[in-house]
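Write out this protein's structure.
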Amino acid sequence: ISVKCIFEVEDARDIRPLSEVAVEEEWVLLPGTTFSITKIEDDSVKDVGRPPAAAWKVVHLKQIKRPANPPARAAVASPAKAGAAAGLSSPAAAALAKLSNRDFSAPAAGASPAEGMRRLGRRDFRVR
């Protein structure tokens, strides 16, 4: 079954400057983002794909608004990755901790996409 999802999003962060494919419009959803299905319909395009599909659907989803004052959650210790040092030693782990504390501030002004990738702990990036 081929499923195409169409999302109606109100709150996301634009990460196009960090995209490895310049023409892609990439957005990241905030932790805890939820959606409700508003409609499921047959897809008239019927793109065969690989492996070949026998049925085609389009699912429409709409973001559910966050409450103004979300209930407090108990802190949960997350298990460290295999082979990773305990604590927040990598830039990516620090960025995730920042997001989990609801700190959605943007990186420093003027930072290049390559610098952003370095801060996220990516080592497999190419500067265009």
